[in-house]
Design brief:
The chain has 152 residues and is an all-beta fold. The protein has one helix and 13 strands. The C terminus is likely disordered. Keywords: Hydrolase, Protease.
Length: 152
């Protein structure tokens, strides 16, 4: 039998390719993961579609973070309020509980939410299980990432 790592309903997550550590709501009801961005813009590089995005400086320890990534897909996503929007998806590395893996996530404005990131079930598949009565079981994000850290 496969032993899965137990997560709480909220955890610190590192996204090292973006130089980011963020508090995430662990949500088995969400299929995909979502990352809050204050703004985003599309462009082409080498003929391929890319998305640029900006986070902060509110809640990012006073630092503005700008990053860009290739768009791997664009899909309609229905939020918990029933609103459907077309979102850009990117692939990035995620570090959580000693596990590192590539995950897909979409970019959206989560400004009114308590957590800047939503960790969906496809990012947790085959490795993690969730104990909804517990939180932050794996401590803060790795210090080696340095700033910025989104606290929200």
């Amino acid at each position: 039998m496969l032993t899965r790592i137990v997560l709480g309903w909220r955890e610190w997550v590192a996204l090292p390719d973006l130089g980011l550590a963020v508090r995430a709501k662990v949500d088995t009801g969400a299929r995909t993961s979502a990352l809050h961005v204050d703004s985003q813009w599309r462009f082409h590089d080498g003929g391929a579609p890319w998305v640029g995005f900006r986070l902060g400086p509110e809640g990012v320890s006073g630092h503005l973070l700008e990053a860009a990534a290739p768009i791997i897909d664009e899909r309609d996503v229905t939020d918990s309020g029933g609103r459907t929007t077309r979102r850009a998806f990117l692939r990035t590395r995620l570090q959580l509980a000693g596990v590192e893996r590539d995950v897909e996530m979409n970019l959206c404005n989560r400004g009114g939410m308590m957590f800047p990131m939503l960790l969906g079930r496809t990012a947790m598949a085959r490795t993690f299980t969730v104990d909804p009565a517990r939180s932050f079981l794996h401590g803060r994000a790795p210090a080696r990432l340095g700033e910025p850290v989104i606290h929200s």
